Amino acid sequence: MKVAELREMSAEDLRRKVDELQEERFNLRFQKTLGQLTSPIRLRQLRRDIARVHTVLRERGTGSASTPKTEGDKV
After folding, report:
1. Which of 12, 25, 34, 57 could form a disulfide bond with 46, CB atoms 3.0-4.6 angstroms apart?
2. pLDDT class of 53 with cuts at 50, 70, 90
3. CATH fold of 3-62
């Protein structure tokens, strides 16, 4: 999943995407416990995708995505 695709989505769509990815991750973790996991790399991909979605949501929440700081800005 690309960050550019995520940035085009609405906040509500991103929240739904996080829920969907977390549910898939749960199911894969369950399969891993039972020894039925066919693609262990998918767990890593899901974890990173979830982090990407959270990052985009965080950027929107703080406004850092729309207003980058410059050298003269006061904190």
Report:
1. 25
2. very high
3. Helix Hairpins (1.10.287)
Q: Are 45 and 31 in contact (CB under 8 A)?
A: no
Residues 31-48, buried b or exposed e (16+ Cβ, 10 A)? beeeeeeeeeeebeebee
Q: Which of the four pLDDT bands, split at 50, 70 and 90, describes residue 61?
A: confident
How far apart are the C-alpha atoms of 20 and 49, rounded to whole Å?
11
Max Cα separation, the chain?
56
Which residues, including other chains, have CB under 8 Å from residue 14's CB and lie 6 or more apart? 6, 53, 56, 57
Domain boundaries, the chain: 3-62
